[in-house]
Write a structure and sequence with these properties.
This protein has one domain (41-288, 300-308): 3-Layer(aba) Sandwich (Aminopeptidase). Helix content is 39%, strand content 13%. It has helices at residues 4-7, 20-33, 76-94, 103-109, 120-128, 137-144, 169-179, 197-209, 234-247, 263-271, 292-305; strands at residues 38-39, 54-56, 62-67, 97-98, 101-102, 110-115, 213-219, 223-225, 250-252, 275-280. It has an eight-stranded mixed β-sheet, with helices on both faces.
Amino acid sequence: MENYEKSYPKMLPFNRECDHDLVGAYISVLLSRYSFLEQVYVGESIRGRELYCVRLGRADAQPVLYVGAHHGMERITSSLLLRFINEYCESMAEGVRMYGVGMDYIFSERCIYVLPMLNPDGVELSLRGASEESPLYERLLRMNGGDDFTHWQANERGVDLNHNYAAGFTEYKALEKEDGIINGPTKYSGEYPESEPETSALCRLIRTVSPEMILTLHTQGEEIFYTSGGTCPKISHRIGRVMSDMTGYRLAEPEGSAAYGGLTDWFVAEYGKPSFTIECGKGKNPLPPDDFFNIYARLRELFFRAPILF
């Protein structure tokens, strides 16, 4: 890992491909700069990579959760959340107001947990392909149908983490069978809900802190999904409309296989609280790092104001 501590300017260089090492390095730098930033241990991936998570705000305040990179090729979402963490810390340290709200108020009234990269192994596969050092190397090549992993979404075991939650799991299994989906780059839900260490660790965090709201970042399409099977808490539509106005993103309901087994589906069904899937940016996945600043500019207000919308 490069020595980021010495080389970083005040504004961290987010317009580059983001991998697990960069997430760890960014967080390490920010922890050294800001005493109020807290790291939270969540768990590890299949390959033993830590699922880095930080807490912004008082531990006894109302909790909110932001999650990035369920899918390997959607790693730009990790960069977006790292930039938010960095800007939150800078704004808090300088005592400024963000979009008319004092940072001291946000810090004291909301506790924001940010997990920038849920699927570090999938990110590594999408960026660099399968490593011959992996015990799953030959299996990965077979699952992928070759050595080009650019569009890989799943974790290293071939499970799509955003279909691995206990929400419509049985119904989704029937769709899998109809479509001939097996473990591989995308859409395979696993043997049972939370079968994967990444989703299991995230659900454990959610059960521990019981967030009032979740934002989970994906790419692409500039849409905001807020329902599960057509249902959601009454407040979700109102919050979603405000988010849509902030970002210019279309408020939408998931269809087909996208309506089963996701984090938003599970959280809405299990907790009856608002959860939003933000499809960041527009184009063809994986979105290039050069898109980062334009995407962040559209989502910046949302990141700061979402926690106080409920």
